[in-house]
Amino acid sequence: MKGDKLVPKRGSCLRKNDSKKLAISISCQSPDMIMVINGPLLITKKVKKWTLSINPHEYYMVINIGEANIKLKYNHDVSGHEIIYDPYKYDHSEKINFNPDDFVKQFSIPAGYIDILSKWYSIKFTYPEYNIIFIKPEMGISIQVHTHRSEEWEILGGKPIIINNDRVYYFVENGTKFLNEKMQYHSVINPNKNPREFVALKERWSGSFDEDDIKRIYNPNNYH
């Protein structure tokens, strides 16, 4: 059986299974926390040994959110499985934040924004009552929760993968809305390979908005 090791705070690629059922044996020295994507489900649990069953053609990913290494073993070779999202593809690349002026020139950014938060994998334009967020192709934001606010997302473009509480939604159509309640997991992944095919979403919030009100459960982008 082929295997992998995941150190703390690292995850596997998000893959699509082939036509055979896949079994992933997960083990660690003592019970610790893991997070898995298993088709439409996001599962978080403490395990010492667990066999995860993946149906044919389903999507899967394993994330180590504990404090110790975990070992993965597969009952057949997964090297041919399609990689939907590699969270570390640009791990060793130079990280240059988007130039807002260049971004506005290239994309149809509505006028009236009052603030901009530019990162190397996303850029956010803040308006008086909402934000518009763009996410770079082949990138995702952290899986996170908020303590003091809830958020409503409306998908504007890019057919993203959305994590919303304990569910995962794939290739979401424009106009779809999601409510991220306080302390619920949420994330956005842009699976597109075309470098110009950004995911765009409109974000509204209720409660107290503060950029520091973010607990990053899994953060592949190492943003602090």
Can you describe what's shown?
The chain contains one helix and 18 strands. With 224 residues, the chain is mainly β. It folds into two domains: 3-85, Sandwich (Jelly Rolls), CATH 2.60.120; 100-218, Jelly Rolls (Sandwich), CATH 2.60.120.10. Strands 1, 2, 3, 4, 5, 6 and 7 form a seven-stranded antiparallel β-sheet that branches. The protein is globular. The mean pLDDT is 93.
Compact description:
This protein has 224 residues and is mainly beta.
Annotation, overall tally of beta strands: 18
Q: What is the CA–CA distance across the termini?
A: 37 Å
Summed up, the domain count is: 2
Can you say what the CATH homologous superfamily of the largest domain is? Jelly Rolls
CATH class (first level) name of the largest domain: Mainly Beta
Estimate the mean pLDDT confidence.
93
Tally of individual helices:
1
Radius of gyration: 18 Å
CATH topology value of the largest domain: Jelly Rolls
Q: Which architecture of the largest domain per CATH?
A: Sandwich
Low-pLDDT runs: none
What's the quaternary structure here? Answer: single chain
How would you classify the helix and strand content by structural class?
A: mainly beta
The proportion of residues forming helix, as a percent range, comes to: under 10%
Order of helices and strands: EEEEEEEHEEEEEEEEEEE
- Major β-sheet annotation: 7 strands, antiparallel
The global form is: globular
As a percent range, the share of strand residues is over 45%
